[in-house]
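Appendix B, record 7
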Amino acid sequence: YLYAATNSGVYIGDYLSSNLADFNNWIQQLSLPDNSGIYNSVELVNGRIMVNYSNNLTNDIIYVLNENAWSVFKNEFSEIHKINYTNNKLLIIADRRMSLYDQNLNFIDSIRTSDYTNPNISDALIKSDNTIWISDLGNGLIKKTTNNFEFIIPNAPYSSDAFSFDIQNSRVLVAGGCITQSGNNAFKNGT
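Structure tokens (predicted):
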């Protein structure tokens, strides 16, 4: 089966179905607590399905499917962005922190606000040598090895809203901005 985390619960669909584009071929998981709530992440972790219930009132709740029954794995994180399982490690990416667990769901390590300035982690993966690659919305690409953080900031425009570019003397020059409706050049904040 395929699992889908949606704004109205978790659904499963048979991947052999002829038309999963038709929502009628998906079945809502009514056995989940808060079964019609907002779920923003689903992941297969060592043969177990894990989903995150996005709770605006209190902490988010990660449920795990064990032998056809859902149970709470964690409910200590606010605003979980993603659950990611890679190289037999579970990464829980939440607001301002990330926690790492082994394949048996035992805690290994975490990255918090005290580890580097203003973490805003959007995604991460871990390689077989335990190097963690972090995509951070404010700090760029980060390579974490043991207790070392290497910040990799490309020499590139600040945003994707570059207005114009030119190449001169083997250098790329990029300008931010925009054109107004009347055809005049204008400054665009954030470019």
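Remarks on this record: The chain has a mean pLDDT of 89. The CA atoms of residues 63 and 73 lie 5 Å apart.
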